[in-house]
Amino acid sequence: MAAAALVALAAACADDAPDPLLPELPRPGRPNPHPDQAFLLEAARGAWAYVDREYQPGTGLVNSVRSYTYATVWDMASGLAAFHCARELGIITPQDFDVRMTRALQTIESLRFFDGVAPNKNYSTLTGAVAGRDDRDQTVGERGFGWSTTDVGRFLVWLKIIETRHPQYAPAVRRIVARMNLAGMVRDGYLSGAELTPAGQLLRYQEGRLGYEQYAAYGFALWGQRAERALNLRENSLPIQVLGVPLLADRRGDDFLTSEPFILMGMELGWNREMKQLATGSLEAQEERYRRTGEVTFVSEDAIPIAPYYFYYYAIRYRGNPFSVGVQGSETVLDGPRWISAKAAFAWHALLPSPYTRLGAEAVGPALSPLRGWSSGVFEAGRAPTGSENVNTAAVILQAALYSVNRLPLVH
């Protein structure tokens, strides 16, 4: 990590002055090698096929979904993650990495921000221009329609990793972060998103729920802006059980208890004690469903090409319902689609390898296309590929392979 950030985090995580809100720095010494490094590396090579195919050389950005020339700020972070991991794994040369990273950072540095505060929620990967809510929305103009602090938090995590691991890009990264008004995105200790309604009214709202909230807030903390109440897992947690496994829910409701924030925090940042307990419980609940039903279960948020939503959250618990499916911005609880998430299976196998996680990683094998990369997974019924290759699946699988090399958080 950068020297100042490392010193601050070391002080926070030292035995005599622990900060329970932040992930713990890894202890000295090399952990045991991962038993499936070669298997994970082969999966990562398949993941790179997507990134390479959907890369836009004019901007350095990567299409969010196959042939869809738009990307959110979360997707941009995934693109940077994919470049870094591919270089570290030897999938691309340092020269290729430099071309891609340099161009991407140049584009990001020139992005038009929403009201000068933060990146807009969506951009064209072809031009870097502000985009609407989808490819049909041409109403937002140059201003955009708001920002997501959850997306910005992931973006900040990866900007810190790039700054730390590739100091030649540190000046560009710092200029990008300096343009953001991080303090303006924190209110009353929470992360605060913004959205412009079709009628032109700007809405500000507390953003994030258990898991996602802490992950995003840690991204802000890496750059010196602490959202204390968002960082604190205990602030809004509610003890529950799912299939007999002790877990936590968000007492505010509307939370998607799913794999995504836990696997990202584990691989990128490391877990503190409370987050590790919740993460391992989340995996245990998924394995318990397999024991009871015979359905291999690895849940996450994923692009699924099924109308009317096309993006779904398969959750361990949503609105009191175990192993149900939800949609962002909707109170509807769905019974499907149900799929085995490729990125969740590989990430859990990298973090907490076991015969069950290996079973999951093998189960998603049909999701790989040699030319297009990994789709988001396979449907539980019949194991057919979901058919939705995307940058987030690619990035997480690449991260899983890189994490398995040293079994240390990538920010280290």
Protein architecture, described:
By secondary structure, the protein is an alpha+beta fold. It has one domain (33-406): Glycoside hydrolase 144 (GH144) (Glycosyltransferase). Helix content is 41%, strand content 17%. It contains 13 helices and 20 strands. The strands form 8 sheets. Strands 7, 8, 9 and 10 form a 4-stranded antiparallel β-sheet that branches. Helix 5 (149-165) packs across helix 7 (212-222). The longest helix is centred in the C-terminal third of the chain and has 21 residues, at 273-293.
Brief digest:
The protein is an alpha+beta fold and 412 residues long.
- Oligomeric state as shown: single chain
Kindly state the number of beta strands: 20
Low-confidence spans: 1-17
Radius of gyration: 20 Å
Overall CATH class: Mainly Alpha
Mean pLDDT: 93
Structural class: alpha+beta
Ends distance: 6 Å
* CATH homologous superfamily caption: Glycoside hydrolase 144 (GH144)
In percent, how helical is the residue content?
40-55%
Tally of distinct domains: 1
Shape annotation: globular
The tally of helices reads 13
Report the major sheet.
Answer: 4 strands, antiparallel
Tell me the β content.
Answer: 15-25%
Q: What is the CATH fold-level name?
A: Glycosyltransferase
CATH architecture heading? Alpha/alpha barrel
